[in-house]
Amino acid sequence: MTLPHPNTDQISLPIVLGVLGDPTRLAIVRYLASKQGVPLNCSQFLNFGSKTNLSYHLAKLREAGVTRAEVAGTNRMISLRRADLDARFPGLLDSVIAAAGDDPALPAVGGHDIEVHA
Amino acid sequence: MTLPHPNTDQISLPIVLGVLGDPTRLAIVRYLASKQGVPLNCSQFLNFGSKTNLSYHLAKLREAGVTRAEVAGTNRMISLRRADLDARFPGLLDSVIAAAGDDPALPAVGGHDIEVHA
DNA sequence: CCAATTGTTCAATAACTCTTGAACTAAGGA
DNA sequence: TCCTTAGTTCAAGAGTTATTGAACAATTGG
Questions:
Q1: Which contiguous run of DSSP H or E holds residue A95?
Q2: Which parts of the protein come within 7 Å of strand C, by CB position?
């Protein structure tokens, strides 16, 4: 029941760059980075289009080695593979996240905070 | 007769990442970086596919703000916009180039050195 | 067991990307 | 002037990507 992930040495630079070259995915990565290593389930960022589309983009990120998805019941806990990416491409993720933070043209880091009781 | 380039503040992160997420263009960038700021004309890297295709990829790089192309007679002198990219996305270009340098799966930094007399 | 919740997979479609050859423009040199 | 050299533009093709709704699987809770 575990989902397929590349291991660290299989992560490819052009694939990672290509995957990050999409505004939706960049926003997802930025959102994950803003949560400082806490894994999150998908429903916390349903701002990113339809359910199907989010699933599609999360699969792209996972298959590229940018994120990790762990199955927890009916949820998938998504986290950034910070350490793996830093080991493979030192400084890359940090500079991308920093650059994304400055860019007002990007979709805002959405994700409603969890509210008990709506 | 000058070709269109974005100015520094128009350079977009997702576009730059998308443009760099192609092995051919990454190889071109890597080649330019290896020449340390010396502008080059196109014919020096005709290893990158057909003439048309090289023109296509160089236009992508230029339009994204990654390279500058200056017209010099019948040649175009191509250079990396290092300073502009560093100003806009600090550390990004360096980490990409460093990462590309380690990746054996990427096309080699070709570009035949200019030989007088074949 | 039945229903609700989470997320994936499938099929379809519109849009975009890469690649090519042929035709073109523009500058330089004999 | 005519030929060559350097690149671009055009038209077309194959292939890929992003997006959607419908149908599906799997877990949790009554």
A1: helix A92-102
A2: A 3, 41-43, 51-52, 54-56, 58-59, 69, 74-76; B 1, 18, 22, 24, 49-50, 52-53, 56-57, 60, 73-74
